[in-house]
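seq as requested:
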Amino acid sequence: MISLTMKIILKNTILKAVLLTTILVSALSCDKHEALEVDQTALKDLSGDWYVRLFINNEEALEYSLITTTNSADVNSLWIDDHHHIWDFKVVCPADGENLSFSGANLPSNVDGYEVDINITNGLIIKEGTIAPGGSVVDSIYFEAEFSDDLNPGTIYQLAGYRRTGLAADEH
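struct tokens:
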């Protein structure tokens, strides 16, 4: 007959063996793969939030407004959204990630039932191309837009600004 002390020692030995086996199996089963590299879209440098001013014939017509550019499902196109700040538009515009440029003709926009076609020309991102109000060197954006429903057909609007930094000094 096994004594109570022997039962406790046997039970502890079995528990230790199970625990040691679990630790060894866990340690040996760990993958030793290299870290995965995360791919980025071809338009990553064109994408972001931007504070832009609107100009007509190089005269300021509207102070800073927030717009967003982001890659679309098509790897060669960029969404441009003015968030109801400028003309109520959101378009998919052809873009070139290598040259940091974008432009397109008769781009359809439908925001909350408001339909308009937009021509975007001379779209360009310049890396570290300007200084934000708070003093940070940031990317700049520039493009020209023409709206199909403009009361003055043929008017070309210039939009120019800087990449949003998130710093209080640079917010509008």
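DSSP finds one helix and eight strands in the chain.
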